[in-house]
Amino acid sequence: MHDPGEQPEDAEHLADASLEEVRTVAVPMALHGQRLDRVFAQLVPEFSRSYLQQLIEQGDALVDGRVTTKVSAKVRWGHQLQITLRATPQSTAFVPEAMPIEVVFEDAHLRVIHKPAGLVVHPAPGNWRGTLLNGLLALDPQASEVPRAGIVHRLDKDTSGLMVVARTRQAMDALVAQIAARDVHRQYLALAHKNWTGPSPRTVDAAIGRDPTHRLRMAVVDLSHQSGKTAATTVQLLAQGERCCLVQCTLHTGRTHQIRVHMAHLGHPLLGDAVYGGAPLAGMTRQALHAWRLAFVHPITGQSIDLTIPPPEDMAQAMQNLGLSYN
Asked: Count of alpha carbons within 13 Å of 48, Cβ hemisphere only?
């Protein structure tokens, strides 16, 4: 399986969506009686089997001149097979797309950017184009020489805030190692439902895994019974009103939806986060989460980088509507 951050192998052959290639092969005796998709996978080995299956199902394969859309159809020795190889969304995903990107810090080795809410970080099913990765490829010619255009960590689509992006492979490898060693410090502002109760600050040390009842969500899990990964978040109360609270969350690990899951686990789902029990309030219709501070040691120069950025307009307006402020 390909690294999800790297360009699929198929793209090396058909990176231009306008290109097509017709490949004709004869079934050898060794493959007599095999499934059509398996035979193509053997005879056209530079393309993945799943990609070839897609082409067969959409009518791009011929057996002795007849269209065959059944991937499990058996073929015989001597059959003439033909397939039209076309670009897939995956193979055309990693292309430059100009878009406004707010750069907070940059040098020859890395950039720190402010990702707006609503921007997907990396191409994936349903969002093959228009992602931050596409924008980085347009912003910086060097980005195409670095895996994932230098992306070393991610923010959810509807989370705003600071991200560091590598510009060289040396910087990328060092940043990945720093993140794994928990030497990159990330702090978030979050608006959550209900008055805060209990101690502040409070560290939530609760493993996170796939929600067994809702496969599109993550959940706090018991590792003795379910698969998952350890996760820790420190939550500090900054202000609160009648129906909500403003907190600062410090990540000690970087699990999928970590803050959203841990806050819901505490009984304080984020405003606007319908996936984890939140609801729109004070104008917030997306999850009220903003990566406001990013601090790390520059992996090449050794410089201490400590950057902050205020919350975007929608979150700032919601705080004002709720009478919440922080220093």
From this structure: 15
pLDDT tens digit sequence for 31-75:
999 999 999 999 888 778 888 998 999 899 999 999 999 999 999
Q: Which secondary structure element, helix H or strand E, spans residue 240, and what is its range?
A: strand 232-240
Q: Which of 10, 37, 156, 211 is catalytic?
A: 156
Cis peptide before 201 (omega within 30 of 0): yes
Q: Tell me the CA end-to-end span of the chain in Å, nearest whole number.
A: 47
Q: How far is CA 219 from the centre of its chain?
A: 18
Q: Which of 228, 251, 315, 252 is nearest to 280 (CA)?
A: 315
Q: Could you confirm whether 314 is annotated as catalytic?
A: no
Other beta carbons less than 10 A from residue 287's beta carbon = 29
pLDDT in tens, 6-37: 333 333 333 343 457 898 999 999 999 999 99
Instruction: Pull the structure tokens for residue 234.
Output: 């420190």
- H or E segment to which residue 39 belongs: helix 36-43
Residue 276: alpha-carbon gap to chain centroid: 18
User: What's the rounded Cα separation, in Å, for the pair 193 and 243?
Assistant: 6
Q: Under DSSP, is residue 88 helix (H, G, I), strand (E, B) or coil?
A: coil
The CA distance from 8 to 125, in Å, is: 13
Whether this prediction's pTM lies above 0.90 is answered by no
- What's the pLDDT at 62? 95
